[in-house]
Amino acid sequence: MERKIINTGDGSATIHIPEWNEQYHSKHGALQEAMHVFIKMGLDFTIAEFDKFELSILEIGFGTGLNALLTAFYGSTVKIDYTGVEAYPVKPEELEVLDYASVLPDFDTAEAVFNKMHQIDWEKSAAITSNFSLKKQEKTFQEIEDQDTFDLIYFDAFGARVQPELWTEDIFLKMYNSLKVNGVLVTYAAKGSVRRAMQAVGFTVERLPGPPGKREMLRAVKK
Ligand SMILES: C[S@@+](CC[C@H](N)C(=O)[O-])C[C@H]1O[C@@H](n2cnc3c(N)ncnc32)[C@H](O)[C@@H]1O
């Protein structure tokens, strides 16, 4: 499918898919959305709530690597093992135009970290910084079979409008099984059908205020 780079409301860029009229991030602000949904409500919450000093994170799907970059920066007080699953990797020329290092305060460090994240081999864990390691897995979400492995999941699939098959009980059961007890899943989505699918597989689900431009989001915990 054709992919175009566009600017979002907070000045940060994202990828737009014209055929689906869908974006990789919120049109209101890619950076604002990632910071609110995944860093504040996911990463910061999990560290504080469960007194974590080591975290294993799964991202659905890795896409541009923006969430991974922000996690390496804003999660630097803990040791993080990050797994990003992605079936359709973003191309180097697209990453260059997205220029995500420029959204962080220390451009040179951010650029080196971002480049390294994209240069490492797929399927192998590699140290990106002294306390952040990354494993990129090129496969579909449907192929995930991990058990009791992760403390936190960033569930960042395209919306149910375009990929309803990714917001089902089957997929959330895979997510539930892949989390440890007290594991947390965060997503930008807030639909009732999504919340019910999460609850049906055993999650305890909260509705939280969403990022700018979106009223609510969901956080699910495997109690
Ligand atoms: C909303 S975008 C993710 C944005 C990403 N978190 C970021 O910060 O750039 C959804 C991602 O899921 C990937 N994807 C879509 N369907 C998939 C599938 N069935 N299995 C694996 N990846 C898939 C897309 O290629 C895309 O990168």
Automatic annotation (TrEMBL):
MnmC-like methyltransferase domain span: 132-223
Record's keyword terms, sorted: Methyltransferase, Transferase
The keyword Methyltransferase is assigned to this record: yes
Is Thylakoid tagged as a keyword? no
For biological process, the GO terms are:
methylation
InterPro entries of this UniProt entry? MnmC-like_methylTransf, SAM-dependent_MTases_sf, tRNA_MNMC2
Superkingdom to which the source organism belongs: Bacteria
The terms under GO molecular function for this entry are: oxidoreductase activity, acting on the CH-NH group of donors; tRNA (5-methylaminomethyl-2-thiouridylate)(34)-methyltransferase activity
Name listed for the protein in its UniProt record:
tRNA U34 5-methylaminomethyl-2-thiouridine-forming methyltransferase MnmC
Q: Which species is this record about?
A: Zunongwangia mangrovi
